[in-house]
Amino acid sequence: MKYNPTAPIYLQIIEYLKKDIVTGKLAAGARLDSVRTLSDRFEVNLNTMQRACAELEKQGAIITQRGIGSFVTEDKKIITALQDEMSGGLVDSFISGMQDLGFPEDIIFDLIRKALKK
Amino acid sequence: MSVILSVKSGTKKFGRKLVLDSVDIELPTGRITGLLGPNGAGKTTILNTVMGLYRLDSGEIHICGEAIGYKSKRLISYLPDTNHLFSWMRVSDAIHYYSDMFPDFDAVRAKELCTLLEIDERSRTQSLSKGELERVLIMLAFSRKVRLYLLDEPLGGIDPLSRKKIIKTIFAQLDSESTILISTHLVKDVETLLDDVLFLNKGKVIFADSADHIREDRGQSIEDCYMEVFENV
Amino acid sequence: MFKLLKWDLINFLQKYYLLYIGYAIFLALAAVFPANMGAASTAASILCGFFIAGFYFLTGFLAVTVTIGWTRRTSYPLAASLSASPRKILLSKLIMSGIILTSSFYLTLIYKLVYDRLQDVLSGSAFIPNAGNFGYVPAVFIYSIIFMFSYLAAQSNRLTRILPEISAIVISGLMYDAVYFITTGLFLGNRIPWISGTSVSLIGDNLSGQSMIYCILITSVILVGLFFAGCSLYEKHFERST
Predict the structure, then answer these.
(1) Is some CB atom of chain B closer than 8 A to the CB atom of A6?
(2) Which of B29, B156, C104, C130 has the smallest set of CB atoms within 10 Å of its CB?
(3) What's the predicted TM-score (pTM) here?
(4) Averaged pLDDT, A79-105
């Protein structure tokens, strides 16, 4: 795993996990591995992993049942919201990047259409 | 969160030279702290005073609330930056010695770590390369279940593969009851490893913060922050 | 405690086993080399004698330095990380000192037994020290205790820490004499040839049984006191000079 050292690592882990949830790699309702196993897989400090999980819990993306384990939420609304949040970010940065280069709106649309056809 | 190690106004002179200048440290449990600074900053000296190898001229050190003494050593596993094993020992002898001397030593875990770190138990410790020796010392230090692990430059001059394995081992050791203090001058290597950092320069703690704060509030990596702090020193 | 002693013993043997093998070889050589080959025999005799005497000196020296030598090795951080009490650690070293000192005695005993058995077959000269030659053992052991205390004291004070070996030798020399004077001072006028030099037999000569017991008792009390003082110094003030 490669991390950007200038941004909080737990946030980057959250992004990875959210992506897995959104793409379905971590299915709705699926059981998550233990924090320790996750921290080993993500090659981070246990505390970092715990913070990431706690934050995801706060956002409703995962649910922990004491003594049983942690599970991905089954709430479709939350998953869709995550999807929107992640895509929104991508779209915003793409558009502002293109506008910085001086592309007008209609050209941006055309370029997107052409690229998607490929 | 309880405090596992507390150093208050730790001062030490070697002859005329002031090596520790009123050092204050508070290590909470369950976290990995990096003691970072250039060579000669006093990192090894601090670890040595906590271990009782050196005495403070003034100031106090407490481990889990009790003043340091031979009894508090049972709570600490120390990895010095030198080969502290007896020169005639094979790895198996060292394991044997640790088993005898440290009641918290877990021989089963030692075997696991030997496999994980690819250590040949029959090899002579004198004839190991730096990387191999470091892995052995880490294996020994982490086969003990204690409250505080003091690691002095565990990654210096180690090849990337050994380094990865060592870091993995360090991670696995951490739980809510144990604390790890790593002293190093190789900031980049420990970037993703640390919860908290302490910057030490010329015997003084010039900066202390958590890794998350540095990244969130300053938008810097630990290394960037280190450069900035030390450039302005 | 016994684990400490076990490892101290293993350590010592790992480092110095060659010394003992050398001793055995030279003893054997002396016994076997024919005594009737004129100059060759004399040469062999002198050579063996030289090494065997050297062995005794060396064991004496090692017995004294083993008390604190462990603090000067690269393995000191390991020893210092043990949570054993200083008393146990230092007692183990003192026992080692005693073992090393008496090892020469026991080996000689074994040698004598073997030599007597094989006397008919052997044609060389025998190097069999008698009990009197081992008079140095108690004296050196007492000096070991004093030296251990002195070295620990030297490394516990900022000034003497600069030259700890010399300070230790000076302090121990003074203390050795001091212990003598304290012991004999209580028997004013009574000339008690204390354990000094290489002979212990003198102590029996001028003493009544009771005085000798007092002498030994007082010396023992002082030495035990020094041991505990040394333990305290090691626990609270000892620091290896860099």
Answers:
(1) yes
(2) C130
(3) 0.88
(4) 87
